[in-house]
Protein: CRISPR-associated endonuclease Cas1
Amino acid sequence: MLTALHLDGAERPVAVLLEGPALRLRRPAVADAFAPLARLARVVVHGTRVQWRTEALLACLEAGVPVAFLGRRGTLAGLLLPLRPPSQRAGLAAALDAAAALPGFRRRLEDLCRAEERRALLAALRAGPGWNCAELRPEIVRRLAAAHAPVPAAAEAVLALLRGLAAALVAEELARQGVGPNFLVRRSGGFPLAERLGDALAWQVWPQTLALLARAGAADAERPTPALRRAAIAALEGAGLRPACQQMLARLAAAVGSEV
Structure:
């Protein structure tokens, strides 16, 4: 079973080297760790204190392992994608490419992503704190949740981190299904599909999120403490979200395919 490798330099810097068919992770004052490339689904880089050797990055690309970079606030900042053919060619990539030329498609795609998030939000709230589901929008729910936490600024950082982690998972799955950079890269005018669907996927861990927010204390109000970051990563990775992600992409493929 493939797993995600999270590289977080919050507590100590990390150097990533290549050792045969594995990444070698070097940290001060601890023994080196090894991550075989054949076992990696994706690599997620947190922050700026993770330093890569070029040959290690190249080995990830040659092994078909996407590398996602999260910014200082935990949001998805960028994605390094292999150029080799994806391990599976799903109908979603072809449907998106065909529909992209249709008038108004960007607005329609935004509507589909918003519907996915609304669907996930309502399911989360039905199992959550009992707020009025009919009136609430995602940004309002996040604001309310942060306001009820001990330190709202720290809670907002946790929410941003969970959304970034979910977006990295979606980006990996999109890459494996052959979706091109025009739906992954904002700077070139593309549609930020991974981030929009990541917002929806993050609601799948709403009970765990509320528990994490209750622990967001004043030790570091600007960003989650290292322990809280580890707990957020464990909550999302332990939730088994890949099937839910694949089902969401299948619904998107069916909706987009019906328009072409």
In short: The radius of gyration is 19 Å. Residues 219 and 257 are 49 Å apart (CA to CA). The mean pLDDT is 86.
